[in-house]
Amino acid sequence: MDIEKLSLGALKRMSIEDYKSIKKLDYDIVVDNVRSGQNIGSFFRTADAFAANKIYLSGISPLPPNKEVLKTALGATESVMWTHFEDNERLIGYLQENNIKIIVVEQTNQSIKLNDFIPEVGLKYALVFGNEVDGVSDVFIKNADLCVEIPQIGTKHSLNVSVCAGIVMWHMYNCLKAI
C-alpha cells in the first residue's frame, strides 16, 4: 500500500469568505467560564470543522484577540461567529427568548448518554461546556432542557473540555449533516 499524506493544496480548503456564506448546522456552542485561551482556541477550530452556527463566550473566558486563543484557533476566530456575555443569566435569557434548547454537557443525576441524544429536525440547540475545574455553572444546569454526558470508563471520568467539545460537536455534525 502506497499511502501518502495529503498536501495543504490537496485538501481544497474553502476560503473564510466561502465558509461564512455556507449554511451552518442548528447548534451553537456556549463556553461557560473556561479559563484557558488554548481551550478557547480549540473550541473555535472545532466549531469551524463541524459547522457550528456560533460560539457564545461567557464570564472569564478569554476573548479574541487573546494571544493563546489566536495561536490555537489558527484563524478560526475569523470564520466562526462569536459573541461575549459577561453574565450567564442574560445569556440564558437570550437563548430562551430565541427558542434555543439549552443542552448542558455535564455529569448530573439526570444526564443521558450522548449517543442517546438525537437532535430533532427544526430545533436549535446551544451546547454548554463548563470551566476546567468546576464544570458547568449551576445556573445553566437549573435552566437546562437536557443534560448529556459522554460515557467513559477508566479512573478519571473526565475529559479536557476542548476534547469533550470535539466529541460532542462531532456527534452533532453526524446527526445534523444529513438533515
Give structural notes.
With 179 residues, this protein is α/β, with parallel strands linked by helices. The protein has one domain: Alpha/beta knot, CATH 3.40.1280. It is built from seven helices and seven strands. It has helices at residues 16-21, 37-49, 67-73, 76-79, 88-97, 138-142, 161-176, and strands at residues 27-32, 54-58, 82-85, 100-105, 112-113, 124-129, 146-149. It has a seven-stranded parallel sheet, sandwiched between helices. The radius of gyration is 16 Å and the shape is globular. The model has no long low-confidence stretch (mean pLDDT 96).
Features:
179 residues, globular, single chain, 18% strand, alpha/beta, 7 helices, 7-stranded parallel β-sheet
| Global shape | globular
CATH topology: Alpha/beta knot
Give the SSE order as H and E letters: HEHEHHEHEEEHEH
- State the major sheet: 7 strands, parallel
Q: Which band does the percent of strand residues land in?
A: 15-25%
What is the CATH domain class? Alpha Beta
Give the end-to-end Cα distance, rounded to a whole number of Å. Answer: 36 Å
Helicity level: 25-40%
* Alpha plus pi helix count: 7
In the CATH hierarchy, what is the architecture at level 2?
3-Layer(aba) Sandwich
Number of strands: 7
Please state the average pLDDT score.
Answer: 96
Low-confidence stretches: none
**Order of strands in the sheet with most strands:** 3-2-1-6-4-7-5
Radius of gyration: 16 Å
Overall tally of structural domains: 1
By secondary-structure content and strand pairing, the structural class works out as: alpha/beta
Could you give me the name of the CATH homologous superfamily? SPOUT methyltransferase, trefoil knot domain
